């Protein structure tokens, strides 16, 4: 009976899509906050928050501003979509609060809007298990905003959860999963590692251009520079297209020159990295093994719970530690979500800090802003909470 229960629990984990907590900053500097009471916007100066949209059905879980700043992609958790979690994707007109349904689906794991605002791209766990993998892997889909047409961009291929649009709005950077990593004949390596390729996918025809060979996990993180010249990604191994790779012992940050396929290994304890909007700086995120520097310590929390944020130049030199209290994830085993910080302009970073409250076991999550020189810091959470709970 215990074995049956464990199998049932594993099935739930496999079939349940979970969106990350990724801070989203609009073109006017506002930050969108999905929370139980609705979708809220925090002003660029952090002094005021207001309700953008309260869905008629479902609970807010994820949002993106359209490039024009006048519309919002709102994703809500809803019921009645079969196995796993149901999700409703809507396009909200921020001028009058009206919403138009784009699609109702299940197990969405990530979503973006193309730079020209014409296409919504998203990943979701496929309904069927991938042959040879014995699990449901993400598929990449696109929605034509004008027509509402929802199609699979790669009908026969699986991808990692994340993806990125190139600036031309005609192609997507993604990790295509080819096969599981096997340590012994017939036995997959623990940790869900996969052989695959970092690729450029043409939209809407789905033509794939391989850029690098990679061993990574389902949640491999990567980012593309604003000028499309380079990409930063974390992987267990990386090489030229077609290379035979063996996984290392720990993930390593790499820089890819997209035009040539040249790879540079970035030494250091990094989980991932994000380019600033102008591409002149990089925000690196890693585990904290020091008691020095800005930001309060997290006391009894383990190292896996807190992250160190460091700002570097474009070549990942001249590091400045800006925070040591950033939270890595929220939720428990059956519903945990990664937390990703964001740039607000080119000289400010937004992240979610953790604070022990009511003793040292209960933790509050607090939106925090810090300058790239670490000299200016502000906790913005009270403004959001006040706007949300005030009648």
What can you tell me about this protein's structure?
The chain starts with a helix and ends with a helix. Helices cover 6% and strands 51% of the residues. Strands 14-15-18-19-22 form a five-stranded antiparallel beta sheet, with no helix packed on it. The chain has a four-stranded antiparallel beta sheet with strand order 2-3-4-5, covered by helices on one side. The chain has a four-stranded antiparallel beta sheet with strand order 6-7-8-9, with no helix packed on it. A hairpin with a 5-residue loop joins strand 25 and strand 26. The protein has 391 residues and is mainly beta. The chain is built from two helices and 34 strands.
Brief rundown of the structure:
The protein has helices at residues 2-15, 381-389; strands at 21-22, 24-25, 31-35, 38-42, 49-53, 59-65, 71-78, 86-93, 99-106, 108-113, 119-125, 138-144, 150-152, 158-165, 171-180, 182-184, 187-188, 193-202, 208-217, 222-224, 230-235, 237-239, 252-257, 262-266, 270-275, 281-287, 306-313, 320-327, 329-330, 337-340, 342-343, 348-357, 362-371, 377-379.
């Amino acid at each position: 009976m215990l074995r049956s229960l464990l199998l049932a629990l594993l099935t739930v984990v496999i079939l349940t899509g979970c969106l990350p907590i990724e801070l989203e900053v609009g073109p006017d500097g506002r930050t969108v906050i999905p929370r139980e009471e609705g979708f809220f916007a925090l002003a660029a100066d952090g002094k005021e928050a207001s309700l953008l949209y309260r869905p008629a059905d479902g609970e807010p879980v994820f949002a993106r501003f359209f490039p024009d700043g006048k519309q919002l992609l709102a994703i809500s958790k809803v019921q009645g979509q079969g196995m796993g979690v149901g999700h409703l994707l809507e396009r909200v007109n921020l001028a009058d609060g009206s919403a138009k349904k784009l699609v109702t689906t299940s197990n969405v794991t990530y979503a973006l809007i193309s730079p020209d605002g014409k296409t919504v791209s998203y990943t979701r766990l496929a309904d069927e298990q991938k042959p040879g993998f014995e699990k449901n892997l993400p598929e990449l889909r696109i929605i034509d905003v004008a027509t509402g047409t929802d199609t699979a961009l790669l009908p026969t291929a699986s991808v990692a959860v994340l993806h990125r649009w190139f600036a031309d709005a005609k192609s997507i950077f993604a990790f295509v999963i080819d096969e599981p990593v096997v340590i012994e004949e017939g036995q997959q390596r623990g940790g869900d590692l996969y052989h695959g390729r970092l690729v450029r996918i043409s939209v809407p025809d789905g033509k794939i251009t391989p850029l690098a060979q990679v061993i990574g996990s389902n949640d491999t993180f990567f980012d593309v520079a604003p000028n499309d010249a380079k990409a930063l990604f974390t992987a267990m191994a990386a090489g030229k297209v077609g290379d035979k790779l063996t996984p290392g012992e720990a993930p390593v940050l790499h820089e890819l020159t997209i035009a040539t396929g040249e790879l540079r290994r970035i030494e250091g304890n990094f989980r991932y990295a994000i380019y600033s909007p102008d591409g002149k700086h990089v925000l690196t995120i890693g585990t904290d093994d020091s008691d020095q520097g800005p930001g309060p310590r997290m006391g009894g929390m383990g190292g896996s719970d807190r992250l160190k944020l460091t700002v570097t130049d474009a070549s990942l030199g001249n590091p400045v530690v800006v925070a040591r209290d950033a939270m890595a994830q929220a939720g428990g085993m059956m519903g945990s979500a990664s937390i990703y910080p964001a740039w607000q302009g080119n000289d400010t970073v937004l992240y979610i800090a953790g604070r022990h409250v009511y003793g040292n076991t209960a933790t509050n999550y607090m939106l925090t802003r810090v300058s790239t020189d670490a000299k200016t810091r502000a906790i913005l959470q009270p403004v959001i909470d006040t706007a949300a709970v005030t009648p």
